[in-house]
Amino acid sequence: MSGILQRYSDFLPLTASTPRLTLGEGNTPLLKLRRLGEKLGIELFVKVEGMNPTGSFKDRGMVLAVSKALEEGARAVVCASTGNTSASAAAYASAAGIPCFVLLPAGKVAMGKLAQAAVLGARVLSVRGNFDQALDLAVRASRDLGLTLVNSLNPYRLWGQRSAAWEVADELGEAPDWLAIPVGNAGNITAYFAGFVTYKNRGIIRNLPRMMGFQAEGACPLVRKETVVNPETVATAIRIGRPVSGKKASAAARITGGGFYAVTDSEILEAQRLLASSEGVFAEPASCAPVAGLIRLHREGRLPRGIRVAAVLTGNGLKDTETATRGIAEPVEIEGNWDSLKEALSWNPSV
Ligand SMILES: *Cc1c(COP(=O)(O)O)cnc(C)c1O
Predict the structure, then answer these.
(1) 183 CB less than 6 Å from ligand 1?
(2) Does residue 290 line the site of ligand 1, with CB under 6 A?
(3) pTM of whole model > 0.90?
(4) d(Cα 249, Cα 260) in Å, to the nearest integer?
């Protein structure tokens, strides 16, 4: 099995003594969504990052960050997380054989992600506060206690995450016209931009895509151009009020003629169901923000016809089934006999 360190070794800061960790990250599907694309009048692709080993794109950066930490003799790693970073850090720390400490905002992490961090062997601390506060504490712990910080302040994280842009370009043979992506700490949009710039500088692609970032209305500091003190959204992975890479992300949007847009929680959940029920792709709420955004831009007549869009579905829907099933009808219960089944099937006209 090979991962991104093997596949993109020429583009990553590896030395002869960097351990080549892998859990099989990267090489995720780029699906063409014909039905939804037609409805929106565009050529729509989705990069299904939920297919990574721990179910989110975070694995791309974590494999490099933990490999470099090992190379540099780290004793342990630490991170603050809205959930997916902690799942990923826990997995790669286990693979590397070093301890992992994670700081999570109390009560605001999806159950699947909590389970992952705990079962994967991390020491999980629940912080009474939001993500931004947890991050301040993790930074302090790394500085004062000598733990290696594996949040996106660690430059190897974003470097590894560039691999997703390379995969999109490798598969399409060019960059898409738009890259639509959810934005929390704004690391991933920054990493994609850097990835496309690398490929353009090496002559592999001719153009950069417009970098289009989508945030939740209750947590959209880059849309409002100011810190959001109490960010709130059902999309917990992007519930961030003070994005660490905000400045770089803004530059990426400005340079490429892109921008930042906000969508409501109900638009996010509608997009999640549409994506799942009409295309067979189950992505977590944060991942559905760009899809919700494309739908809204289309409705407002602001989505150019015929363009090629790649939307990044950052995480797997199974991580947060509680949110996904809110308001969805319970399964119809029947007796365990043929008559009950026959009746139920004719009763339900959609079968
Ligand atoms: C981390 C994460 C995001 C946000 O990415 P940033 O780099 O913080 O902007 C979006 N969706 C999911 C599923 C995530 O785990």
Answers:
(1) yes
(2) no
(3) yes
(4) 9
